[in-house]
Amino acid sequence: MCGIAGVSLKSGEPSQPLLERMAALLAHRGPDGEGFYRHRQTALVHRRLSILDLEGGAQPIAAEDGATHIVANGEIYNYRALQARIREWGVGLMTNSDSEVPLHCWRRYGIDFVKYLEGMYALAIYDEASEELILARDPVGIKPLYIAETAAGIAFASEAGALVRAGWVSAEVEEEAWPSFFSKQYVGGALTMFKGVRRVEPGEVLRIRRGTIVDRRIYPLELTRARRMDEDEALAMFDEIATEVVQSHLQSDVPYGAFLSGGTDSSCVVTKMAELVGKVRTYAIGFSSDTVADERQNALRLANKLDTDHSAIEFTHADFWKILPEMCEAMDDLVADYAALPTLKLAGLARQGVKVILSGEGGDEGLAGYGYYRLQRRRGLRAMMRGRFRFQRAADTAGFQGLFRSPMPAWRDRPIDERYDARGFSYLQRQQAGDIQEWLPDDLMTKVDRCLMAHGVEGRVPLLDRKFLGFVFGLPDRLKISDGHHKYLLRRWLADRQPQQEPWARKKGFTVPIQAWLEARRSEILKYLHPHQGVREVIRHEPLKDWLEQPLDTRGAKLLFNVLSYALWHDLYIQSTSLPEALLHPSKEELSLAWA
Known about the structure:
This protein is α+β, with helices and mostly antiparallel strands.
């Protein structure tokens, strides 16, 4: 896990001060070292977090003849098999790093090289002979990559904020991103909240020559229609593939551990880790609250059963106000997912003992764990019969249209991306594909990446391994949702191995008691937001005042969290101004007003 950046200019040579600024801005992603490479109009930058080949894996890495160079962020899980193949070609490897492997695959297979890679990655390869720069991102979108095109050429980086703060583009808001962010808490697709900065999309490969994109291709995640399979056969395959992917995700030359919430997904991952390596370090966080579930006891039951080296901490009201600005700083590609707050605190704890964390993200998308999958079935089936499919969920702006200066969509309404061949998909699969296409990379993976990298920790998500995700997506619907139980096959698997985890109990979910905490300081929030320059560009002055003079309901608290996160992000990245001290440092008396 690292930070990468670079430029491809239309003319002239890259500025070393610009490259050094980008490296400094990505230092938290790679605190173990930095590297630079320049050739004519192109430059590569790398910040290293040492995980594999600690002595010899510094980047940029050059091929044996010195003609091609790579910087990479992520892990290639099939790198040992690819190393053996590369040696059969008579090619000498310069390192034992997994990051060198894509370089030789590109030299052999050209732009199709990504078809041979299994893992999570964002990478850049430069060829001196053709003066071509290749950018590629993994098909699930686990690792981030951004580009900014200007009259001077193209710059890229692991974080959008690095391109802005390094001075490559000006710090301006992309107004077209407002509807997506305020309706869904994140910006979907290629857009970001920064004008002039866009995402390299999942599975996208770009060929750039002298500051201009000359080819753009998508190598999508392979999602297939449901296969016929009985339950026993599916259970056996589930166990076999889970073993394989967790094993591959354990490759490391440094200590690793796992986030353990006590839910089905993390329990599956930790159970497999314990089977494979014995002693495991696990980390949990929870809340002392009357309004949300605290799953620390569930986590402790499994930790005791597996005899893990377990650590658990609490997230408090005081933590909320302390970590909120840290979240807005880390979330340069703004995501107002309040689960990021405890994740940031837990990552800080984990960093004291490990450099790699495995977590259970992806189980809900692959195995149909969300309640709305079932609730919308009838409406969706009718839409399919009429020959059109739109995936919808209530938006965060629903019921608050009068607040905004321009219309905000009342629904999360989107078609399945054309990259997926959805012919033959069931309605459930179409819902899953919609989330895998956008929600997964643009919210969940952004959250995981930024929260862990803020503390120099590599995050790995075995349930999003391409092989595992492809298998569970292709399960029959009845093995995903059955007798009112979502993630049926996973629950059945866990019931056989860890019955003390009560896998058939109703899903509680991992949430944060933001309604109580925001309500307790509503008047202070109003004082901050009402005159805020960035907020007033989006939200009407008087309706904002009227809204925040009344008690918050659940939906109102969620929207307020979006607005408050946007205001703090705007202060940090657009205005570069000081943050509101009175709001972010409440007194003990103010903190005691909330019962959580």
